Protein backbone atom coordinates (compact mmCIF):
# COMPACT_ATOMS: atom_id res chain seq x y z
CA UNK A 1 0.00 0.00 0.00
CA UNK A 2 1.33 3.45 -0.96
CA UNK A 3 1.10 5.88 1.96
CA UNK A 4 2.46 8.81 -0.02
CA UNK A 5 0.20 11.59 -1.26
CA UNK A 6 -0.05 12.02 -5.00
CA UNK A 7 1.61 15.01 -6.63
CA UNK A 8 -1.78 16.72 -6.99
CA UNK A 9 -2.73 16.04 -3.36
CA UNK A 10 0.60 17.38 -2.15
CA UNK A 11 0.12 20.53 -4.23
CA UNK A 12 -3.36 21.05 -2.80
CA UNK A 13 -2.08 20.55 0.74
CA UNK A 14 0.72 23.06 0.22
CA UNK A 15 -1.48 25.65 -1.45
CA UNK A 16 -4.26 25.49 1.16
CA UNK A 17 -1.71 25.56 3.98
CA UNK A 18 -0.32 28.84 2.71
CA UNK A 19 -3.75 30.22 1.83
CA UNK A 20 -5.30 29.27 5.17
CA UNK A 21 -2.75 31.34 7.07
CA UNK A 22 -4.01 34.44 5.25
CA UNK A 23 -7.52 33.71 6.56
CA UNK A 24 -6.59 34.01 10.24
CA UNK A 25 -8.82 36.51 11.99
CA UNK A 26 -11.60 36.42 9.39
CA UNK A 27 -15.15 35.42 10.24
CA UNK A 28 -16.55 32.03 9.28
CA UNK A 29 -18.61 33.66 6.53
CA UNK A 30 -15.56 35.46 5.13
CA UNK A 31 -13.47 32.28 5.19
CA UNK A 32 -16.11 30.31 3.29
CA UNK A 33 -16.36 33.11 0.74
CA UNK A 34 -12.58 33.07 0.29
CA UNK A 35 -12.61 29.29 -0.24
CA UNK A 36 -15.31 29.70 -2.87
CA UNK A 37 -13.06 32.08 -4.81
CA UNK A 38 -10.46 29.34 -5.25
CA UNK A 39 -13.05 26.63 -6.07
CA UNK A 40 -12.61 24.70 -2.82
CA UNK A 41 -16.27 24.63 -1.75
CA UNK A 42 -17.12 21.70 -4.00
CA UNK A 43 -13.72 20.12 -4.24
CA UNK A 44 -14.82 16.46 -4.28
CA UNK A 45 -18.08 16.89 -6.21
CA UNK A 46 -18.19 16.01 -9.95
CA UNK A 47 -17.52 18.80 -12.42
CA UNK A 48 -20.91 18.28 -14.07
CA UNK A 49 -22.52 19.22 -10.74
CA UNK A 50 -20.45 22.38 -10.40
CA UNK A 51 -17.67 20.84 -8.32
CA UNK A 52 -13.94 20.63 -8.90
CA UNK A 53 -13.92 16.87 -9.57
CA UNK A 54 -11.25 16.21 -6.97
CA UNK A 55 -10.98 13.30 -4.55
CA UNK A 56 -12.17 13.07 -0.97
CA UNK A 57 -8.63 12.67 0.35
CA UNK A 58 -7.75 16.11 -1.02
CA UNK A 59 -10.84 17.50 0.68
CA UNK A 60 -9.71 16.04 4.03
CA UNK A 61 -6.31 17.66 3.62
CA UNK A 62 -8.08 21.00 3.15
CA UNK A 63 -10.21 20.45 6.26
CA UNK A 64 -7.15 19.69 8.39
CA UNK A 65 -5.30 22.81 7.23
CA UNK A 66 -8.39 24.96 7.86
CA UNK A 67 -8.69 23.57 11.38
CA UNK A 68 -5.18 24.82 12.13
CA UNK A 69 -6.47 28.35 11.57
CA UNK A 70 -10.08 28.08 12.77
CA UNK A 71 -11.88 25.07 14.18
CA UNK A 72 -15.16 26.93 13.70
CA UNK A 73 -14.57 27.59 10.00
CA UNK A 74 -13.38 24.01 9.45
CA UNK A 75 -16.59 22.64 10.98
CA UNK A 76 -18.78 25.00 8.94
CA UNK A 77 -16.86 23.98 5.81
CA UNK A 78 -17.30 20.29 6.65
CA UNK A 79 -21.02 20.67 7.30
CA UNK A 80 -21.47 22.53 4.02
CA UNK A 81 -19.61 19.87 2.05
CA UNK A 82 -20.21 16.46 3.62
CA UNK A 83 -23.71 17.16 4.88
CA UNK A 84 -25.49 19.63 2.62
CA UNK A 85 -23.72 19.37 -0.75
CA UNK A 86 -23.09 15.63 -0.59
CA UNK A 87 -26.72 14.93 0.38
CA UNK A 88 -27.92 16.87 -2.65
CA UNK A 89 -25.36 15.25 -4.90
CA UNK A 90 -26.40 11.72 -3.92
CA UNK A 91 -30.16 11.94 -3.30
CA UNK A 92 -31.34 15.11 -5.00
CA UNK A 93 -33.31 14.92 -8.23
CA UNK A 94 -31.65 16.21 -11.38
CA UNK A 95 -33.70 19.38 -11.08
CA UNK A 96 -32.51 19.94 -7.48
CA UNK A 97 -28.90 19.29 -8.42
CA UNK A 98 -29.03 21.79 -11.27
CA UNK A 99 -30.79 24.34 -9.08
CA UNK A 100 -28.65 24.20 -5.96
CA UNK A 101 -25.31 22.44 -6.42
CA UNK A 102 -23.63 25.06 -8.65
CA UNK A 103 -24.67 27.73 -6.12
CA UNK A 104 -23.30 25.68 -3.22
CA UNK A 105 -20.01 25.07 -5.02
CA UNK A 106 -19.62 28.75 -5.92
CA UNK A 107 -20.44 29.90 -2.40
CA UNK A 108 -23.58 31.71 -3.55
CA UNK A 109 -25.42 29.58 -0.99
CA UNK A 110 -24.15 27.87 2.17
CA UNK A 111 -25.83 24.72 3.48
CA UNK A 112 -26.01 22.70 6.68
CA UNK A 113 -27.92 19.92 8.49
CA UNK A 114 -30.92 20.24 10.82
CA UNK A 115 -31.39 16.86 12.47
CA UNK A 116 -31.11 16.75 16.27
CA UNK A 117 -33.82 17.86 18.68
CA UNK A 118 -33.50 18.96 22.28
CA UNK A 119 -31.09 16.82 24.28
CA UNK A 120 -31.96 13.64 22.39
CA UNK A 121 -28.96 13.84 20.11
CA UNK A 122 -29.53 11.91 16.90
CA UNK A 123 -32.15 9.39 18.10
CA UNK A 124 -34.59 8.84 15.23
CA UNK A 125 -37.24 7.36 17.52
CA UNK A 126 -37.42 10.58 19.52
CA UNK A 127 -37.66 12.99 16.56
CA UNK A 128 -40.92 14.90 16.73
CA UNK A 129 -40.66 17.21 13.72
CA UNK A 130 -43.39 16.25 11.25
CA UNK A 131 -43.96 16.65 7.53
CA UNK A 132 -47.64 16.44 6.57
CA UNK A 133 -48.65 16.24 2.93
CA UNK A 134 -50.31 19.43 1.75
CA UNK A 135 -51.45 19.75 -1.87
CA UNK A 136 -48.25 19.57 -3.96
CA UNK A 137 -45.89 19.63 -1.02
CA UNK A 138 -45.44 19.22 2.74
CA UNK A 139 -46.06 21.30 5.85
CA UNK A 140 -43.16 21.02 8.31
CA UNK A 141 -43.59 21.64 12.02
CA UNK A 142 -41.04 21.13 14.77
CA UNK A 143 -37.93 22.38 16.52
CA UNK A 144 -34.32 21.54 15.64
CA UNK A 145 -31.55 22.31 18.10
CA UNK A 146 -27.79 22.79 17.79
CA UNK A 147 -28.02 23.67 14.10
CA UNK A 148 -24.48 24.51 12.99
CA UNK A 149 -24.21 27.83 11.18
CA UNK A 150 -27.87 28.25 12.07
CA UNK A 151 -29.20 31.58 10.89
CA UNK A 152 -26.16 32.16 8.66
CA UNK A 153 -26.81 29.37 6.14
CA UNK A 154 -29.02 29.60 3.07
CA UNK A 155 -30.12 25.96 2.80
CA UNK A 156 -31.05 23.48 5.51
CA UNK A 157 -31.37 19.72 5.12
CA UNK A 158 -34.26 19.17 7.54
CA UNK A 159 -35.22 15.69 8.75
CA UNK A 160 -38.87 15.12 9.67
CA UNK A 161 -41.30 12.26 10.24
CA UNK A 162 -43.56 11.33 7.33
CA UNK A 163 -45.87 8.97 9.14
CA UNK A 164 -43.69 6.50 11.06
CA UNK A 165 -40.64 6.92 8.86
CA UNK A 166 -38.05 9.66 8.47
CA UNK A 167 -37.58 11.82 5.39
CA UNK A 168 -35.20 14.60 4.40
CA UNK A 169 -36.13 17.93 2.84
CA UNK A 170 -34.36 20.98 1.45
CA UNK A 171 -35.64 24.10 3.16
CA UNK A 172 -34.49 27.56 2.14
CA UNK A 173 -33.64 30.07 4.85
CA UNK A 174 -36.25 32.57 3.70
CA UNK A 175 -39.13 30.08 3.84
CA UNK A 176 -42.17 31.53 5.57
CA UNK A 177 -42.56 30.13 9.09
CA UNK A 178 -38.84 29.38 9.52
CA UNK A 179 -37.13 31.18 12.43
CA UNK A 180 -34.02 30.98 14.59
CA UNK A 181 -33.15 31.61 18.20
CA UNK A 182 -30.27 33.80 19.25
CA UNK A 183 -26.99 31.86 18.86
CA UNK A 184 -26.06 29.77 21.90
CA UNK A 185 -23.27 30.99 24.13
CA UNK A 186 -20.86 28.08 23.88
CA UNK A 187 -17.74 26.83 25.61
CA UNK A 188 -15.91 26.56 22.28
CA UNK A 189 -16.38 27.01 18.53
CA UNK A 190 -17.27 30.57 19.40
CA UNK A 191 -17.02 31.92 15.85
CA UNK A 192 -19.57 29.40 14.54
CA UNK A 193 -23.15 30.43 15.27
CA UNK A 194 -25.18 27.50 16.55
CA UNK A 195 -28.90 28.02 17.07
CA UNK A 196 -32.35 26.50 17.44
CA UNK A 197 -34.38 26.30 14.23
CA UNK A 198 -38.18 26.44 14.55
CA UNK A 199 -40.56 25.37 11.77
CA UNK A 200 -44.16 26.57 11.98
CA UNK A 201 -46.25 25.36 9.06
CA UNK A 202 -43.30 25.75 6.70
CA UNK A 203 -44.41 24.76 3.23
CA UNK A 204 -41.88 22.73 1.26
CA UNK A 205 -42.55 21.80 -2.38
CA UNK A 206 -42.72 18.07 -3.07
CA UNK A 207 -39.71 18.36 -5.38
CA UNK A 208 -37.58 19.42 -2.37
CA UNK A 209 -37.81 15.92 -0.92
CA UNK A 210 -34.40 14.19 -0.99
CA UNK A 211 -34.63 10.65 -2.28
CA UNK A 212 -37.95 9.09 -1.43
CA UNK A 213 -40.25 9.25 1.56
CA UNK A 214 -38.89 7.13 4.39
CA UNK A 215 -35.30 7.30 3.13
CA UNK A 216 -34.22 9.86 5.70
CA UNK A 217 -32.52 7.48 8.10
CA UNK A 218 -30.50 5.93 5.28
CA UNK A 219 -29.46 9.41 4.12
CA UNK A 220 -28.49 10.44 7.62
CA UNK A 221 -26.45 7.29 8.28
CA UNK A 222 -24.60 7.52 4.97
CA UNK A 223 -23.78 11.17 5.49
CA UNK A 224 -22.77 10.56 9.13
CA UNK A 225 -20.15 8.04 8.04
CA UNK A 226 -18.66 10.54 5.59
CA UNK A 227 -18.91 13.45 8.01
CA UNK A 228 -17.06 11.38 10.63
CA UNK A 229 -13.97 11.52 8.44
CA UNK A 230 -14.29 15.30 8.26
CA UNK A 231 -14.45 15.52 12.05
CA UNK A 232 -11.35 13.34 12.35
CA UNK A 233 -9.54 15.72 9.97
CA UNK A 234 -10.50 18.70 12.13
CA UNK A 235 -9.25 16.93 15.26
CA UNK A 236 -5.94 16.15 13.53
CA UNK A 237 -5.50 19.80 12.58
CA UNK A 238 -6.25 21.09 16.08
CA UNK A 239 -3.91 18.47 17.59
CA UNK A 240 -1.10 19.51 15.26
CA UNK A 241 -1.42 23.11 16.41
CA UNK A 242 -1.30 21.93 20.04
CA UNK A 243 2.01 20.11 19.61
CA UNK A 244 3.56 22.90 17.53
CA UNK A 245 2.70 25.45 20.21
CA UNK A 246 4.07 23.11 22.87
CA UNK A 247 7.39 22.64 21.08
CA UNK A 248 7.74 26.36 20.46
CA UNK A 249 7.01 27.17 24.11
CA UNK A 250 9.35 24.41 25.30
CA UNK A 251 12.23 25.97 23.38
CA UNK A 252 11.56 29.44 24.79
CA UNK A 253 10.73 28.62 28.41
CA UNK A 254 13.73 28.02 30.65
CA UNK A 255 14.24 26.47 34.06
CA UNK A 256 17.65 26.42 35.72
CA UNK A 257 18.93 28.25 32.62
CA UNK A 258 17.95 25.27 30.46
CA UNK A 259 15.14 25.25 27.86
CA UNK A 260 12.48 22.90 29.22
CA UNK A 261 12.33 21.18 25.83
CA UNK A 262 15.53 19.38 26.94
CA UNK A 263 13.83 17.76 29.95
CA UNK A 264 13.08 14.09 29.43
CA UNK A 265 9.63 14.28 31.01
CA UNK A 266 8.54 16.91 28.49
CA UNK A 267 10.10 15.00 25.60
CA UNK A 268 8.19 11.91 26.63
CA UNK A 269 4.91 13.81 26.46
CA UNK A 270 5.81 15.29 23.09
CA UNK A 271 6.73 11.85 21.80
CA UNK A 272 3.36 10.42 22.80
CA UNK A 273 1.57 13.41 21.29
CA UNK A 274 3.46 12.98 18.03
CA UNK A 275 2.66 9.26 17.75
CA UNK A 276 -1.05 9.82 18.38
CA UNK A 277 -1.28 12.68 15.89
CA UNK A 278 0.38 10.65 13.17
CA UNK A 279 -1.77 7.60 13.94
CA UNK A 280 -4.94 9.70 13.83
CA UNK A 281 -3.90 11.32 10.55
CA UNK A 282 -3.07 7.98 8.92
CA UNK A 283 -6.33 6.43 10.07
CA UNK A 284 -8.21 9.44 8.72
CA UNK A 285 -6.47 9.26 5.36
CA UNK A 286 -7.16 5.50 5.24
CA UNK A 287 -10.86 6.22 5.75
CA UNK A 288 -10.78 8.92 3.06
CA UNK A 289 -9.04 6.56 0.64
CA UNK A 290 -11.79 4.00 1.26
CA UNK A 291 -14.35 6.49 0.00
CA UNK A 292 -12.23 7.36 -3.03
CA UNK A 293 -11.93 3.68 -3.99
CA UNK A 294 -15.60 2.89 -3.44
CA UNK A 295 -15.14 0.79 -0.29
CA UNK A 296 -17.46 0.73 2.71
CA UNK A 297 -16.36 3.68 4.83
CA UNK A 298 -18.37 3.02 8.00
CA UNK A 299 -15.72 1.04 9.89
CA UNK A 300 -12.70 3.22 9.12
CA UNK A 301 -14.71 6.45 9.35
CA UNK A 302 -15.94 5.60 12.85
CA UNK A 303 -12.48 4.46 13.96
CA UNK A 304 -10.87 7.64 12.65
CA UNK A 305 -13.44 9.83 14.36
CA UNK A 306 -13.18 8.00 17.67
CA UNK A 307 -9.40 7.89 17.79
CA UNK A 308 -8.76 11.42 16.51
CA UNK A 309 -11.22 13.02 18.93
CA UNK A 310 -10.17 10.92 21.92
CA UNK A 311 -6.44 11.42 21.49
CA UNK A 312 -6.99 15.01 20.37
CA UNK A 313 -8.51 15.95 23.71
CA UNK A 314 -5.65 14.22 25.53
CA UNK A 315 -3.09 16.05 23.39
CA UNK A 316 -4.69 19.42 24.07
CA UNK A 317 -4.81 18.74 27.81
CA UNK A 318 -1.12 17.83 27.72
CA UNK A 319 -0.39 21.01 25.75
CA UNK A 320 -2.12 23.12 28.40
CA UNK A 321 -0.13 21.32 31.11
CA UNK A 322 3.14 21.85 29.27
CA UNK A 323 2.43 25.58 29.10
CA UNK A 324 1.80 25.71 32.83
CA UNK A 325 -0.32 28.61 34.06
CA UNK A 326 0.03 30.36 30.70
CA UNK A 327 -1.68 27.41 29.04
CA UNK A 328 -4.78 28.04 31.12
CA UNK A 329 -4.92 31.67 29.99
CA UNK A 330 -6.33 32.75 26.64
CA UNK A 331 -3.21 34.67 25.76
CA UNK A 332 -1.31 31.81 24.07
CA UNK A 333 -4.24 30.24 22.22
CA UNK A 334 -3.81 26.76 23.67
CA UNK A 335 -6.93 26.28 25.79
CA UNK A 336 -9.19 27.19 22.84
CA UNK A 337 -8.00 24.06 21.02
CA UNK A 338 -9.39 21.86 23.79
CA UNK A 339 -12.65 23.81 23.91
CA UNK A 340 -13.13 23.46 20.15
CA UNK A 341 -12.37 19.73 20.23
CA UNK A 342 -14.84 19.16 23.03
CA UNK A 343 -17.43 21.11 21.07
CA UNK A 344 -17.05 18.80 18.09
CA UNK A 345 -17.50 15.66 20.19
CA UNK A 346 -20.51 17.06 22.08
CA UNK A 347 -22.44 18.96 19.39
CA UNK A 348 -21.78 16.30 16.76
CA UNK A 349 -22.97 13.56 19.13
CA UNK A 350 -24.21 10.16 18.01
CA UNK A 351 -26.91 7.96 19.51
CA UNK A 352 -24.59 5.04 20.12
CA UNK A 353 -21.09 5.47 21.58
CA UNK A 354 -18.52 5.25 18.80
CA UNK A 355 -16.55 2.49 20.48
CA UNK A 356 -19.65 0.26 20.56
CA UNK A 357 -20.27 0.92 16.87
CA UNK A 358 -16.70 -0.12 16.15
CA UNK A 359 -17.08 -3.31 18.20
CA UNK A 360 -20.35 -4.26 16.55
CA UNK A 361 -18.84 -3.81 13.12
CA UNK A 362 -15.96 -6.12 14.04
CA UNK A 363 -18.14 -8.93 15.40
CA UNK A 364 -20.90 -8.70 12.79
Strand order of the largest sheet: 1-4-5-8
CATH topology (level 3) name of the largest domain:
Butyryl-CoA Dehydrogenase, subunit A, domain 3
What count of structural domains? Answer: 3
**Arithmetic mean pLDDT:** 91
Task: Categorize the overall geometry.
Answer: globular
Structural class: alpha+beta
User: Uncertain regions: pLDDT < 50 for 5+ in a row?
Assistant: none
Query: Major beta sheet, specifics?
Result: 4 strands, mixed
Number of strands: 10
The helix-strand sequence is HHHHHEEEEEEEEHEEHHHHH
CATH class of the largest domain: Mainly Alpha
Number of helices: 11
CATH architecture of the largest domain: Up-down Bundle
Tell me the quaternary state. single chain
Head-to-tail CA distance between termini:
26 Å
* Percent helix range: 40-55%
Can you tell me the CATH superfamily of the largest domain? Butyryl-CoA Dehydrogenase, subunit A, domain 3
> What percentage of amino acids are in beta strands?
15-25%
Rg calc: 21 Å
Defining traits:
four-stranded mixed sheet, 10 strands, Butyryl-CoA Dehydrogenase, subunit A, domain 3, alpha+beta, 3 domains, 16% strand, 364 residues, Butyryl-CoA Dehydrogenase, subunit A, domain 2, globular, Butyryl-Coa Dehydrogenase, subunit A, domain 1, four-stranded antiparallel sheet
Amino acid sequence: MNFNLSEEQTLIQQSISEFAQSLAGLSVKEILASLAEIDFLGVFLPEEQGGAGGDFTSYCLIVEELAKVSGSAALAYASHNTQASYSLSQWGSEALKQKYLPQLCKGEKIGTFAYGEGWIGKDILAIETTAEKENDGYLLNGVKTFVLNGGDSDLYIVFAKTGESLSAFIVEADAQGLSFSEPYRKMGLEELDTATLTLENVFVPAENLLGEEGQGQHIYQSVKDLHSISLASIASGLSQVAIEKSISYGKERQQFNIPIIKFQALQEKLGNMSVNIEAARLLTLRAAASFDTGEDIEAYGTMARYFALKTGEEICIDAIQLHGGYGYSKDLGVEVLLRDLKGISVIEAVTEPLILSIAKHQIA
